[in-house]
Amino acid sequence: MVWPILVESIIFVALAWWAIRTAVFAVSGVAACALVLLAVAFGRDWVWGVLVLLYFGGAIIGTLYGAGPKASIFNRLLGRAMIDWRTVLSRLGWGCLLVVLARSSRYNTVAISAFVGVLAVALGDTEASEIGALSRTRPKRLTSGQPVAAGTPGAVSMLGLLSAVGSGWLVGFTALACYFIIGLTNRSSWTSALYWLPVGATLGSLAGVVVDSLLGGTAQGAFYCEHCQRYSEEMIHTCGLPAKQTSGWRWLTNQGVDLVSSLVGGAVTVSVVLLASLSL
Ligand SMILES: [Zn+2]
Asked: Ligand 1 centroid to 111 CA: how many Å?
């Protein structure tokens, strides 16, 4: 079917315009989203394209929500685009690989659950940090339970966890709704295991956020910019000056952590969907 991909392209162009105009995504980030959308919508089916659009739109809304107070929490420079191609590919990269790995069968529960899990972590982790940063109570470090300043890598707030739960459920439910509609006309594409997608995606998203926070607070390279007297997630601080390494592995970046958490989230979603459908 060509028309769903046509509709998705039109929605994508509108979102791309919004993302660049509000400087939430860098042009390279929008280009990466476009590539992923084309790869999954043409390589697999249009439902995967819907989920990519859900991540894209959700990331814009989540980032813009409370943008003013968050600028100082994250030490963001207003008007400077944050989400670039590296972030997009570290969050959606496994999803593209799944298109290649699962080409043989069009409707395959394992491939579908894995993709839904990867997208659930992508949206869940984005909203956990974007909406969680606005929490009225201070986030806690997962490793020690110690309250720390909002925006600290490795810390989560209850609001952040709830955002991850809501995002995961939304991704899973959207996929379920789309496949249910397809199944009405094409019976061979439907299997009742897909009813478990919302539960699987919710748990996958939560697992992804927990792994992200654990690694983010321990193994991820952390840096300190002496010029700005601010912590930095990158070797080069946003001010352009090199920052001093304070902990973690220098080579393990935020994107590296995203790749690991996305893999874990996908695996959890597949396990939940398969186990639940086998045992019932
Ligand atoms: Zn600096």
From this structure: 43
Q: How far is the CA of 80 from the centre of ligand 1 (A)?
A: 15
Q: How remote is the CA of residue 61 from the centroid of ligand 1, in Å? A: 27
**Residue 187 Cα to ligand 1 middle (Å):** 58
User: What predicted TM-score, i.e. pTM, was given to this entire model?
Assistant: 0.91
Say how many CA atoms lie within 13 Å of 273 toward its Cβ.
30
Say how many Å lie between the CA of residue 230 and the centre of ligand 1: 7
Q: How far is the CA of 241 from the centre of ligand 1 (A)?
A: 6
Distance 231 CA to ligand 1 centre (A): 8
Task: Give residue limits of the domains in the chain.
Answer: 3-279
State pLDDT tens for residues 24-79. Answer: 999 999 999 999 999 998 888 899 999 999 999 999 999 998 887 777 777 665 55
Tell how far the Cα of 210 is from the centroid of ligand 1, in angstroms: 28
Q: From ligand 1's centre to the CA of 205, what distance in Å?
A: 32
- For 161-218, write each residue's pLDDT tens digit: 999 999 999 999 999 999 999 999 988 888 889 999 999 999 999 999 999 988 888 8
